[in-house]
Amino acid sequence: MSQAVESRGVSVRVPGKINLELVVGPLRDDGYHELATVFHAVGIYDHITVTPADRWSVQVTGPTAAGVPTGPGNLALKAAKALARRYGIEGAVALSIEKNIPVSGGMAGGSADAAGALVACESLWGLQLSRDELEPLAATLGSDVPFLLHGGTAVGSGRGERLAPVLSRGELQWVLWVSNDSGLSTPAVYAECDRLREAAGEQVVEPTPSGDLIGALRTMDTEAVGATLRNDLQGAACSLYPVLDEVLEAGLTLGAHGAVVSGSGPTVAFLVSTQAAAIDLSVGLAARGPAGDIRRTTGPVAGAQVVQHVGPTGPQNFTG
Ligand SMILES: C[C@](O)(CO)[C@H](O)COP(=O)(O)OP(=O)(O)OC[C@H]1O[C@@H](n2ccc(N)nc2=O)[C@H](O)[C@@H]1O
Ligand SMILES: Nc1ncnc2c1ncn2[C@@H]1O[C@H](COP(=O)(O)OP(=O)(O)OP(=O)(O)O)[C@@H](O)[C@H]1O
């Protein structure tokens, strides 16, 4: 029997994401929009721990735990149950989630927890599945879930679930403005985007990723990356959450190289070139921008990773 199977618990850390580019194409018959997006995993992490148990349960703690469901609607629980069903695992797990990723913030926190639960349970049950083998099941749980299995920077197509890695070197410095109010509902923001487009008589074409952004990422030219950030949901997010216009303007006035609403919002990501510039921008935003939580982070970072097996003799760490 493998070490993993003997273990009493497995802990995984999983990052949130921002979208460096989100090109929204036509609404499909299945209710999803065709996308061309560039996902970018950033260093704000949830931790998921799974322990064998007689019945399924979820406990949520941490700074952003408020409002996360602890019943059957929890995405991490859904992911663990789906994996058990798919591979004929009997028995259950107790899930413990330490939440740091904003909820309904456009950073795919629920999707991250689903990806984290898949990786944790895969390890606990000794299934020997690669990330690629987990992808099809991940895609049934949400369009962003496959990306969080891999992390890094990747182009997403289809409804966001088909991935191709993007080559880049070095690290980007980000300052995030996070709403300390309520978040935004993803379906509501897509619907608002459709409404605004229809009202403007906009012709919606098949989405393609921008070569300029991919080129800028290859050399990690911060100013060029900043100039090519784009999100077609931004207008809709600002329409539903008007303070975002002020947030975007405040960060750009304070010297950010670029600013973009992440995914369906309302989190806003500002790109700067150095850690010192990130500190300056955070201080400026906290003092002069609209009220919100300001966080500094970097990307790209790896996707869901096992960090600890808790065995009969105590914890065994895998990464720092
Ligand atoms: C906004 C993004 O975060 C950008 O990466 C994603 O597109 C949203 O991904 P997600 O939260 O995993 O979304 P899902 O759980 O798959 O879908 C939730 C809802 O969002 C809308 N949705 C999502 C993805 C997509 N390509 N088109 C859509 O219109 C649909 O109304 C769908 O019912
Ligand atoms: N483990 C979880 N963590 C956070 N939210 C969860 C979780 N499970 C279910 N949810 C529900 O999912 C909804 C969306 O939460 P999430 O934090 O993933 O939004 P989001 O970051 O805006 O999503 P995305 O960026 O993928 O569009 C919330 O209403 C929340 O109630």
Question: What are the main properties of this structure?
Answer:
320 residues; alpha+beta; Ribosomal Protein S5, domain 2; Alpha-Beta Plaits; 9-stranded mixed β-sheet; 4-stranded antiparallel β-sheet; 11 helices; 13 strands; 35% helix; globular; disordered N terminus; binds 4-diphosphocytidyl-2-C-methyl-D-erythritol; binds adenosine-5'-triphosphate
Report on this model:
The chain folds into 2 domains: 3-167, Ribosomal Protein S5, domain 2 (2-Layer Sandwich), CATH 3.30.230; 172-299, Alpha-Beta Plaits, CATH 3.30.70.890. Helices cover 35% and strands 30% of the residues. The two termini are 27 Å apart. The strands form 2 sheets. Strands 1, 2, 3, 4, 5, 6, 8, 12 and 13 form a 9-stranded mixed beta sheet that branches. The chain has helices at 3-6, 75-86, 109-124, 131-141, 145-150, 186-200, 211-219, 222-228, 234-240, 243-253, 275-288, and strands spanning 9-27, 33-53, 57-61, 92-98, 153-157, 162-165, 172-178, 230-231, 258-261, 268-272, 293-299, 305-311, 314-317. It has 320 residues and is an alpha+beta fold. It is an enzyme of class 2 (transferase). The active site is at residues 17, 144. One of its GO terms (biological process) is terpenoid biosynthetic process.
Bound molecules: 4-diphosphocytidyl-2-C-methyl-D-erythritol, adenosine-5'-triphosphate
Low-confidence stretches: 1-7
Structural class call reads alpha+beta
Please report the number of helical segments: 11
The amount of beta strand, in percent, is 25-35%
Q: Kindly, what is the distance between the CA atoms of the first and last residues, rounded to a whole number of angstroms?
A: 27 Å
**Could you tell me the radius of gyration in angstroms?**
20 Å
* Text of the CATH class of the largest domain: Alpha Beta
Average pLDDT score: 94
Order of helices and strands: HEEEHEHHHEEEHHHEHHEEHEEE
Number of strands: 13
Instruction: Give helix % range.
Output: 25-40%
Keywords: ATP-binding, Isoprene biosynthesis, Kinase, Nucleotide-binding, Transferase
EC number: 2.7.1.148
Domain GHMP kinase N-terminal: 74-152
Domain GHMP kinase C-terminal: 214-282
